């Protein structure tokens, strides 16, 4: 009895299957080691940091000449971070499956106990991993160009949320192409071509006027929709509710791509690649439905907006500041007073700001100058007055006239009214002369140098481990 007890005590305990890590995590861990310890991602991030450093220095230099506001510089920095981070994840996703086929390791991967969906999930996590690193690297650059502006915190939050959704969508798209491609070259070429086609519209000037069709096409492109959404929130001071339509394409594309990837493509992943034929039938049917719905929405006439105005309002609007000279980038605060000089209560009112340039030059976009261009007022009793506070940020040098207009709200489709304008605020903006190169250069130089040192340290660590393994093998012999 004692001998049996001693023998059972000496037997190693069997591992508990329930305590073992899931197979998808084992695959993801191995992929992460190959990408990060192997140095592939570090090289791409070093290139990314060099591009960001160059852009930050150029933006800081340009701000001395053109007085670029901090919000626009932060927006450009964030847009570069999102574009490059998405590109890295797209490339890794495009190489994830087709690359295994060409390296003749895909068959061995399929023979493991992991299911096809677990394989895809592990590789998806690894391909998505460079995006958080790219976002973290961009934070010092955004902080440097923000120069203490509150837009920095908004940019970090918006960039984290939208960038993650966009990176997940492009990673999933790259893996779909990789699953269905029979060669790695075709997978990478197709993904890069689609990326360039979607990226080019984001580089066009955004000041041109567009119709409903133009805005619809803009919102269909996830990259362009995300770029426009971030710009309107950070630079133009629009609200989230006003620009929520730009989020539809980004969120919908991510949801559709991930559902197709994990619910349809992953379980049907084949050793030789290729797209299952039933998918093409369903894709053609879905594309036809979307085309019919889009065409019907544009052919259906929109209801005519009601032109409701109340005539004969006895209103006056004054301003407490008539002229001021400031430097580019300074804020100007002033107050307006709306008075009802009539004998009956007014209707609800809207007060709108406008800015014009008194010299020959480009027209002024008030959205870039003020976070609030319109304010609403409740009905005013006879003789009642209300004050309103306004803020204008002087962006470009020159002479400008700022004026406010009060307009009654509508009372009927055939009514009209006479808007009343305030005296103009003559704003003289002097050239921007101060800069902050000392705040940009340490970040522009320090981040790439730190990444290069990290890559060298990683390479030296790999050599040291290989030397120890070789020495251990020699001793064993």
UniProtKB/TrEMBL annotation:
Keywords, comma-separated and alphabetical: Membrane, Transmembrane, Transmembrane helix
Top-level taxonomic group: Bacteria
Any one Pfam family match given in the protein's UniProt record, by short name: ABC2_membrane_2
Transmembrane segments: 41-61, 73-94, 124-143, 155-180, 187-204, 246-265, 286-304, 439-457
Protein's UniProt keywords contain Hydrolase: no
PANTHER family per the UniProt record, alphabetical: ABC TRANSPORTER PERMEASE (PTHR43471)
Protein name listed in UniProt: ABC transporter permease subunit
Species: Defluviimonas salinarum
């Amino acid at each position: 009895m004692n001998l049996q007890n001693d023998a059972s005590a000496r037997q190693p305990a069997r591992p508990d299957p329930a305590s073992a890590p899931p197979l998808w995590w084992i695959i993801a861990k191995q992929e992460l080691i190959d990408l990060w310890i192997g140095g592939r991602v570090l090289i791409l991030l070093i290139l990314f940091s060099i591009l960001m450093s160059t852009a930050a220095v150029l933006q800081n230099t340009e701000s001395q000449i053109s007085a670029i506001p901090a919000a626009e510089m932060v927006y450009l920095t964030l847009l570069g971070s999102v574009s490059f981070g998405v590109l890295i994840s797209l490339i890794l996703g495009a190489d994830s499956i087709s690359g295994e086929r060409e390296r003749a390791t895909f068959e061995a991967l399929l023979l493991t106990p992991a299911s096809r969906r677990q394989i895809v999930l592990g590789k998806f996590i690894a391909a998505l991993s460079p995006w958080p690193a790219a976002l973290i690297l961009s934070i010092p650059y955004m902080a440097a160009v923000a120069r203490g502006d509150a837009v920095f915190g908004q940019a970090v939050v918006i960039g984290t949320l939208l960038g993650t959704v966009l990176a997940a969508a492009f990673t999933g798209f790259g893996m779909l192409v990789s699953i269905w491609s029979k060669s790695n070259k075709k997978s990478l070429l197709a993904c890069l071509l689609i990326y360039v086609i979607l990226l080019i519209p984001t580089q066009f000037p955004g000041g041109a006027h567009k119709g409903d069709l133009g805005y619809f096409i803009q919102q269909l492109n996830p990259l362009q929709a995300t770029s426009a959404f971030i710009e309107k929130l950070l630079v133009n001071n629009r609200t989230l509710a006003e620009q929520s339509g730009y989020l539809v394409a980004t969120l919908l594309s991510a949801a559709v791509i991930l559902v197709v990837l994990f619910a349809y493509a992953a379980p049907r992943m084949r050793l030789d690649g290729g797209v299952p034929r039933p998918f093409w039938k369903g894709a053609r049917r879905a594309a036809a439905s979307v085309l019919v719905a889009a065409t019907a929405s544009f052919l259906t006439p929109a209801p005519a907006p009601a032109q409701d105005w109340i005539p004969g309002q006895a209103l006056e609007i004054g301003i407490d500041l008539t002229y001021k000279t400031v430097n580019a980038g300074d804020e100007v605060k002033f107050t307006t007073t709306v008075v009802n000089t009539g004998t009956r209560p007014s209707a609800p009112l809207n007060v709108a700001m406008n800015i014009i340039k008194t010299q020959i030059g480009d027209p002024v976009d008030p959205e870039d100058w003020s976070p609030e261009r319109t304010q609403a007022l409740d009905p005013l009793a006879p003789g009642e007055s209300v004050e309103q506070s306004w803020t204008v940020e002087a962006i470009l040098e020159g002479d400008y006239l700022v004026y406010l207009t009060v307009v009654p709200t509508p009372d009927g489709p055939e009514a009209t009214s006479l808007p009343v304008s305030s005296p103009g605020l003559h704003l003289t903006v002097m050239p921007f002369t101060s800069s902050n190169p000392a705040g940009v250069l340490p970040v522009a130089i320090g981040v790439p140098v730190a990444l290069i040192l990290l890559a060298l340290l990683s390479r030296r660590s790999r050599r040291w481990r290989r030397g120890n393994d070789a020495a251990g093998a020699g001793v064993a012999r």
